[in-house]
Amino acid sequence: MAAEVESVEALIDEFVPADNLKDLKRLLYGAELPSLNLSNEAKLFAQEKDIELKGYIFSAASESTRSPKIVRIGGVQNKIVLPTTAPILAQRDALHKRIADIIKCAALSGVNVICMQEAWTMPFAFCTREKQPWCEFAESAENGATTKFLQELAHQYNMVIVSPILEREEERWDVIQNTAVVISNSGEVIGISRKNHIPRVGDFNESTYYMEGNTGHRVFDTQFGKIAVNICYGRHHPQNWMLYGINGADIVFNPSATVGALSEPLWPIEARNAAIANSYFTVAINRVGTEEFPNEFTSADGKPAHKDFGHFYGSSYVAGPDGSRTPGLSRTRDGLIIAEVDLNLNRQIKDKWGFRMTQRLDLYAKELNDVLKPDWKPNIIRE
């Protein structure tokens, strides 16, 4: 079964002759990035806690007018800890405990900015279309238990933490949102970014719970660079990635939850393409495991009802503006992907390729504005 395949990298290492391995990785990843020298303490802790730990380096050319801007960024992928039948608070608290271990591992590895997967405090129950008990996982972005828990860790470890949760807007009619909370390394909440694009594909019945977000394309200016959060399905929309770049992002996180039968051929391409097209770093994060729910549900595709909707295949990675990317994490294990990046590379690539200079925002704006008019017709010339 596909769920039993550990990773693309494991297959490559097993079946590709050593003489060809270097060239294959160069062609597959754009460059064979150097491994990051992580502390023995971090490695031992990861081994003890069964966390796959990988780290790589994205370098930039030295400059006379700017010092290097070195930042360590991390992405977390993990399985749920307790079965979906366990009490809601028990499920959430077990995930808190697991993530506390992974964030400690990140701190031991010198990570400055870290992001968890989409809706990390809960199973991805949106497939069920059941309101209860899953809506009970929703909590306040500013004052909820998860944010308070992470504020302490952010301050303790001097780390910016991006926490994608199911949000309950307590002051606005208790509406539910799919939201990333950005917590400063000081421990203060900087702000929130909501999911711009909501899927209605197969078992991804997310509009049962929340609709498109209203925060636009916010970029958060942190001590460790300007970061943005493109939640899950937004990665399929090039314009969504573009607007984070227009607003000045250095790093865009893509916390996701997606299964193999649906999206795996797209996964290695989209975040990498976005890094290239927009001259910034991207961090593609996907959960792992197969989550089974108490009641069967259908997908409106004529197939039998089922209690899970497939294997979350992990494979989290980091991509750079120069087209290079890290190998992915496992398809089956909890893991932490780390990249030490020099943010100077973003401007160097802008200078080299000229994508920002040669873009035609005026042209796009005019034509997109025309598309919105009731009398618009496609610009097709026929014989």
TrEMBL record:
Pathway: Amino-acid biosynthesis; beta-alanine biosynthesis
Transmembrane segments: none
Protein name: Beta-ureidopropionase
Reactions accelerated catalytically: 3-(carbamoylamino)-2-methylpropanoate + H2O + 2 H(+) = (R)-3-amino-2-methylpropanoate + NH4(+) + CO2; 3-(carbamoylamino)propanoate + H2O + 2 H(+) = beta-alanine + NH4(+) + CO2
Keyword annotations from UniProtKB, A to Z: Hydrolase
Similarity annotation: Belongs to the carbon-nitrogen hydrolase superfamily. BUP family.
Record-annotated CN hydrolase domain positions: 71-343
Gene Ontology MF terms in the entry: beta-ureidopropionase activity
